[in-house]
Amino acid sequence: MNFTIFEEDDIDPYLKLFEASQADAPAPAIPESGPTPMEQDHTQFCNWHFSPSELITLRSDCNANALKRLQKTLDTETTNGENVDNSPVGLDPDQEFKIVKHYVYLMKILFSKFTTPQLPNEVYGFAVTYFKRFYLNHSVMDFYPRDIMLTCLYVACKAADFPIGLQTFISHIPRNQERYSYLVLNSELFLMESLGYDLWVFTPYQALIGFVIDLVAYQRRICGVHSDSYLIENQSDSQLVDELCKDGVDLINLWYQTDLCLTVHPSQFALAVLVELGHTRPQLDVEVFVRDELCGCDPIQKFKQHSDDDDGDESEIKPKKDAKYDPESRWKELSSRLDFIRQTVDEFQFITDLGPVGQEEIILDECRNPLYNIESDEYAQAKSRADSLMAMLE
Fold this sequence. Notes:
By secondary structure, this protein is an all-alpha fold. It folds into 2 domains: 170 residues, no CATH class; 151 residues, Orthogonal Bundle (Cyclin A, domain 1). Helix content is 65%, strand content 0%. It is built from 19 helices and no strands. The chain is elongated, with a radius of gyration of 25 Å. The two termini are 45 Å apart.
């Protein structure tokens, strides 16, 4: 299923049903800083949700281990008289992150080339998340990003329930198809093991679609348009849903260069994208929609909730409400999360074109681990030893 394509016949009934059902309904609860019940026990929250400081620590540790490997190799070469200059050459954590960001952009370009078949957006979300998770525990100096990028994209097709054959996948790579076919086939299991077999990923795409449809239905209700033929005559709501979803997906794909998929929940990611879209469309009053409708700060919504609480048998014992979840507190906490995302995006340097090869790529070619380079002599020797051991076991 391609979540960027919407048939008008599918949208109209939902909008009408939603408008009717929401007339007397309380505002839906939206997660503030904690996970939803479904996410709370999911591996994405338990194993792959970090604070910015934790990400810095993980990447620094990976970088330090790779530099130790480089220094050990240089010391051995110096002892054997093979290297006169013993100065270590390597990347720092910031340079590694810049390389990862570059290959996230390359992955998006490759993803766009899949037109027959066209891959769902979920595949890209899965693949980028795999890619970023992998390099929390490994260095680009050990495992070349291009190789891991292709493997992530191939595994993501399977995990997102859109499997395609290896030959079909490789046919979208411009050159060295035989080499990459061998590489992807032999790296697939290693990648899944490195990810702890946590392959299902909650992405912002579906949440964005839900928010967009809710926003359009809210605007129609606020404007007092209740004619059954309104959408048929004007077509504006259907077009607006398509436009917002398309622009929102593009924004999600761009923001995947940041660490938001590792630091915030998908629903908050999607909501921040919707708010960003609202900045270029002030007539939609997106922030008012979030505050009044989703968080329930609208006086009418609060009155309805209060009336619902007072209805029923007075002898019935009702649970005491937590003040944390009153509309104002919900909006305040959600606003702080959206501000954090906005600040992250504003301070981030996005890659929007390929550009020339940077100094980081040149250094990476010099310090790449030969044991994981299928074109190196060290790899050939290690593979030969492994094949000999396997032959003995047989």
